[in-house]
Specification:
Length: 586
């Protein structure tokens, strides 16, 4: 046994003596030469591992990680020209993935929100269509066959408008009222027991000539409905347009052109340490800041316009839950239409004569005799108080998105700094001597340049797509500022007053009507006093706008003129004071 032990000891001693010079340093992972570089190269999937030499070599074609022409040929490295080129590709890929990861959360949030918001609007549009159709069938005896096509075309125009295509919502509302008017006329003159019937020719005439009837059967209520719908949907459309442009901006920055100079800088930052077998060393913080800021300074070109647009869309968002709420407007279309029809029914004597003259026929009896003893139980008599759904889960989502967008202010000015703040990749001690400084392991001594200084360099190359994007962002911002400024809104109100005549205010002159949920302030429905012959005219002053105080209307009454002439409007002293103050503020 002792001889065997002696033999084993001799064998082990011989192996140790033979391999003594080949035993690796524990810090080298059990290997010598460029093996650790090969491992890192393979692990990070940079390229074919054969491009990395097994032992340090001198390659005179290397030009990025160091200048081989001026380098001592005795100073060898674990880089070859082939591996250096693959490092360049890997550096570009690394930078693009880093930018993408910085933008990914915001981009996905906005894209998902666009889809959710569009789906929500589509749901509300479908619901509004069915309620309106049911109203016409149940309350006004207008069969689906008579109104379905016109109603579908109207709601399709709304969908088309929201898809960024040009549609005149004012024209769409007029077309809807044109199509419905003949059947409303039938409802008035035929009654339940009347023998009076309208021919297809009469129906077509009433449809084509509705806007020529004086006074307009619907007063300004159809125009009022157009105004609210146009403002609400244009706000929703603007919101979607801005979100789409923001996604386009992020996509463009994800694929921004990187110059060869930028690619080489990131290569020296990320991979040139491998040439000296420093595969685990982190780049210095200052080195990272200079490299990334020089590469990404061109993104700052769009920064101010991005910031301005975010602030502008924040204002649009506030309007979406206040004056111009698309969901609220769509949910109340049936109520607005109901109010306009009730208005026409209650005041049919004022326009029947004009309608008969224009279309060249007469009824056997006066329309009043065939009016139902009790008007339909419409939603205008008992207005439906619907919850403003946009103020629910969807509006919470809008606020969530806006919160994230507000945190993205100056993101293109700080993206380089955000990248270099990643402790897992970069040494965070600005004075560290244990980091890669671009040449060796040691402190980075260059001055760190800020973005404004870099932007003043005339040699900076800017991707043309960023210049084009800057113009888009600026243009969108100006459009929003113009569309939603208080000054623009004041002008818009004056414009509406002027245009109200175009849509047939007729003998009634100006009309005073608000765009609040309850279109009839006192719900009496009969705004016109008189015998029903249509000979008594009435003058009512009107301002169309969402922010008119209900008390201003409530204290206004229409009374017959004692002299038998035209009716006059009496307004309380308090009302006059309120009106003067309101006009002064405007």
């Amino acid at each position: 046994m002792s001889i065997n032990c002696l033999k084993l000891s001799f064998v082990l001693f011989s192996l140790w003596t033979f391999c003594g010079t080949s035993v690796a340093d524990p810090d080298s992972g059990g290997q010598t030469g460029c093996h650790r570089v090969k491992q890192a190269y393979l692990r990070e999937k940079i390229g074919p591992v054969d491009f990395v030499p097994s032992e340090p070599i001198y390659d005179g074609d290397i030009s990025i990680c160091f200048n081989a022409a001026t380098k001592d040929k005795s100073e060898k490295s674990c880089c070859s020209k082939s591996s250096e080129l693959t490092y360049v590709s890997a550096a570009e890929k690394f930078l693009r993935m880093t930018i993408h990861s910085k933008n990914a959360y915001l981009k996905k949030l906005v894209m998902d929100h666009i889809v959710e918001y569009e789906e929500r609007l589509e749901t509300v549009i479908n619901s509004s269509y069915h309620r309106t159709s049911q109203l016409l069938i149940d309350v006004y005896d207008i069969p689906a066959s008579a109104h379905e096509q016109a109603l579908r075309e109207f709601y399709q125009d709304i969908r088309t408008y929201l898809k960024m295509k040009h549609v005149s919502l004012y024209g769409s509302v007029n077309d809807l009222f044109d199509s419905l008017f003949p059947y409303l006329y039938k409802f008035i003159v035929e009654g339940k027991n009347s023998s009076v019937h309208l021919s297809p020719e009469h129906i077509e005439c009433l449809k084509n000539k509705r806007q020529e009837i004086n006074p307009n059967p619907f007063g300004v209520l159809h125009y009022n409905m157009s105004h609210i719908l146009n403002k609400a949907l244009s706000t929703a459309k603007s919101y979607l347009e801005v979100l789409t442009l923001l996604v386009e901006t992020i996509n463009t920055t994800d694929h921004v052109t990187l110059t060869s100079k930028c690619q080489h800088a990131v290569t020296r930052l990320q991979y040139c340490s491998h040439c000296q077998q420093e595969v685990d060393i982190k780049p210095c913080k200052g080195f990272c800041l200079n490299s990334m800021r020089r590469c990404l300074a061109q993104l700052s070109v769009i920064s101010s316009d991005w910031n301005g647009l975010i602030m502008s869309v924040n204002r649009v968002q506030s309007w979406m839950n206040q004056k111009y709420n698309a969901e609220h407007a769509l949910n109340n279309l049936d109520g607005k239409l109901d109010t306009a029809i009730m208005y026409a029914l209650r005041n049919s004597n004022h326009f029947m004569h004009s309608a008969q003259q224009i279309c060249g026929f007469k009824t056997e009896r006066t329309p009043k005799e065939h009016m139902p003893e009790k008007l339909p139980n419409s939603t205008s008599s008992e207005p439906i108080k619907r919850k403003r759904e946009i103020g629910g889960e969807m509006y919470k989502k809008i606020l969530e998105v806006m919160k994230e967008l507000l945190t993205s202010l100056k993101m293109f000015d700080t993206i380089a700094d955000d990248i270099c703040d990643q402790q897992i990749f970069y040494d965070q001690d600005i004075n560290s001597t244990e980091c890669w400084n671009g040449l060796t392991k040691g402190r980075y001594s260059e001055v760190v340049e800020d973005i404004p200084t870099l932007l003043t360099r005339t040699a900076m190359v800017i991707d043309p797509r960023l210049v084009s994007l800057k113009d888009k962002l600026a243009s969108m911002r100006v459009n929003l500022m113009t569309r939603y400024s208080d000054f623009d809104y004041t002008l818009d109100r004056k414009h509406i007053q002027a245009d109200s005549f175009k849509y047939g205010s007729g003998d009634f002159g100006h009309h005073d009507y608000t765009t609040d949920d309850e279109d009839y302030p006192d719900h009496s429905g009969d705004w016109f006093s008189g015998s029903g012959s249509g000979s008594t005219s009435t003058t009512i002053d009107v301002v169309i706008g969402e922010d008119i105080d209900e008390t201003l209307i409530a204290t206004t009454s229409v009374k017959p003129n004692p002299s038998g002439g035209s009716s006059c409007v009496t307004v309380s002293t308090a009302t006059v004071i309120l009106l003067v103050l309101r006009l002064t503020l405007l």
